[in-house]
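INFO batch 0412 | record 1 of 1 | parsing
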Amino acid sequence: MNIDLKEALEKAVAMSKSPGAVALVGDSERVLFEDAVGWRQSIPQTLPASVDTIYDLASLTKPVATTTAILQLRDAGKLDLEQPVSEIIPIAAFRSFTIRHLLTHTSGLPGYALWYKEIHDLNEMIQRIAAAGVEWKAGTRRRYSDFGFILLGKIVELTAGDALDAYCTKNIFTPLGMHRTSFIPPKAWQKKCAPTEQCPWRKRLIQGEVHDEHASAMGGVAGHAGLFSTVQDLSRFCRAFLEGKVLNEKTLAEVERIGQVASYPWQGLGWQLDPWSCGASGFLPTRRTLGHTGWTGTALWMDHTQNRYAILLSNTCHPSRKNRDNQTLRQIFFHHVAAHYYPEKRNVHTGIDRLAWDYFAPLRGKRIGVLTNHAAVDQMGHSLLDVLRLTPDITIKRLFSPEHGFRGQAEAGEHVATQTKTIPVISLYGKRKQPTAEEVSDLDYLIVDLPDIGARYYTYMATMKACMETCAKTRIPMIILDRPNPVGGAVLEGPIATDYGKDVCCAPIPIRHGMTLGELALYFKKTFFSEHPLSLQVIETDSWYRALHYEACSLPWVAPSPNIPDPQTALVYLGTCLFEGLNLNEGRGTETPFRLIGAPWLDTKRVLDTLQPQETLGFELYERAYTPRAIPGKASHPQYQDEACHGIFITLKDPQKARPLTLAVALIVAMHRFHKKSLKFDPFFDTLAGGEGLRTQIQQGKSALEIQESWTAALAQFDRKRPRLYPTLKQLLEGDESYKA
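INFO prediction complete | emitting C-alpha cells
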C-alpha cells in the first residue's frame, strides 16, 4: 500500500480540526520524513506552521527532562530509586512511597486537582500535595499523576544543588545540541512559539509561556510541564536516546521493561511502553516502543526494534480547548506511519490485556465464572487467572474447561473429568457439553477466554455456544475476551455447513470462517439466540486488522491443544484436518502433526506430480518416509502406528497466499484418482466437511479448483452478513467504520 505521510499529516489535521501540526520521522542514520502543515496560530492573525516552530511540549517534559535528570543522578550515585521520597523532601507524608513509585505513577497520589488558583510557588504546591496524602498503598495501582512529577522536579533540585531548568540545560539539552529547547523561552523566541489557548484564567492568549496552569502558578518551571522545543531538537534527543548517549544500556533496559507495574504493564520508568493504537496517545507498533504525549497536542514515540522514532507536535488547544482532539490527530497520523514502516507488523493486545488496561472496570465487585484453558494468556504469557488475581474485588466462583481440559493436556476426543478444588473446574467435554442452570445461577457474569484457531472443526466454539444457550435461558450476562484469529480474518474457505450441530461442526459457517471468537459469539447470538434475552459483551483486541496472521501480532503462542504446536500448523490444519475422515495418518504420532500426511499404500510421487501450481500456492511439498509412534498426551494410538508410511510433508512458505483447504482437497482428489480402491471415506469425513457435498464432488472427479469455485457465491453471501468487529488495513487508515454496520 502506497502511504504518503504528507497527505496523512494533512488528513490528521483536517479531521481533528487542529490549527496545524509538524511531524518528523527518523532513524539512527537520517531523517525519513519532516514537514509542517496548517497554521501555528489562527488568532489574532494566521501564521503558517513550519518545521522550526517552537511548541509547548506539556507532559513531554516528564520523560524528556525530569525522568532523564532523575536517572542521570541515579546513575551518578547521587540518589536511589528505592529511597522513600521523605529522605530527600523531609516531609513525613512522603514516607510511604519511593522515587520509583513516582516515576511509575504508582505512589497513590492524586492524579489531578484544581489547586493553581491557590498556590504561588513550588513549596506551596509541595505542602498541598503532602496535605492531600495518598489514596491507596504505593505500588498496588497505577494512576497517572502530575503531582508525582512535580515532586520529582524538586528531587532533582535538592539532589543536584541546581534548579531543574538549569540542570537540564547543562546536562541534557546543551550536550545534545538542543539549542531551541528550554523552560521559559527567551523573548527572542516568542514569535516562533505556537500559541496555545485564549486562557480564561489568565485572560490572554498564551504564547511563549507555559500553558499548564500549575506550572504557570509555580513560575513556569516544573517537573511535569513547562518545556518548549522543536521537532529538530526532539529528533536529536531521540537519536541520542536510541544510540545509548542519553542513558547507559543497563538503565535503558530498565526504563523499557514491560511488566514492572504488575497491574499496568505498559508503564515504564517515566515513559509509556508498548503503546495502544486505540488510545489517544499515538503509537509505533512494536513491543519495544516507548514514548509519551502532552496535553497541548504533542507526542513522541521511539522504537528500539528498528531504531526508529516519530514526533508529532501541535497546539490542538488553540485558540480554545473546545477544539482539542488529540486522539483523532494522533491516530490518523501514527496509523499511517505504522502502515508505511511496519506494513505487516503490530503489537496486538488481546481482550485480557484490554481488561487490565481498563483496570478490570466491568468486573470489579462481581462474581464470575470463567470458560478458559491454559492457553488463554496475556501478552507476557501470564494466565487469565493470574491476571484476574491482580484485583482483589473479583470473586471467581467456578471454572469451565473445553476439550483437552483446563491444562490442555488431554488428547483429542478424550473424556475430561470435572475437578473439585478451591475453585471447582467443571469439564464441558465428555458426559455433558454445557453448564447447568445451577452452575451459573450465582454468577454476575460468565467470562469466556479461549484461543480459537479459525477452523470450524475446532470444538472450542461449540463449547462457547453451549454456554451461550445456558446463559440465554438463565439471563446470565456473558463477556467474551477476544483474541486475533490466528489465520487472519480476510480469507474464507470451504463449503458452508448444511449438516451441523456437532462438536466439530456446530454452525452453518465455512471451514475457514474468518471470525474471531467474539465475532463468532455475535454470529451465534443472531443465528441461534435472537429470540432469547442474552446479554453479550465483547472486549475487543487492539491493533489487529483482518489481514494479520498470528506471527505478525507479537503475541506468545501457547499450543491450544496438544497437536497444534505453532501458528503455522494452525493454518495447515484448516485443510489437513479433513484427513481425519480418511484412512490416512494425518501426522499424529510424529513431531509435525497435520503437516505430514501418509499411508503405507500411498504413491506420493504420483500424487505430487499431478498437483497444479494454483493448488499449492504458498506451500512447498516434499516426499517423506516416516513411521507413526505412540506419543502419550498427543497421540496414544495414531493411525498406522508402528507401520512404515509413505508421506507428504507440507511446508508453509507464504501464509497470505496459502489456501490450505484447496491444497487438502487437491491432495484428496489426486489420491482418489490413483488409489480408488485403497482410499476410504469414513462417515466422519462428512461431519468435518459439514455435509456430503464435498465428498460427492471428489467422487464425481471434479478438480480442486472446480470445487473451490463452487464455494465462491455462498462464501461471498456469508462474507456480507458475518459480524465484523475489526477493519481491513484500508478501512483503518481511512477511518472507515462502515464494516461494523
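INFO post-check: The chain has a mean pLDDT of 95.
INFO record closed
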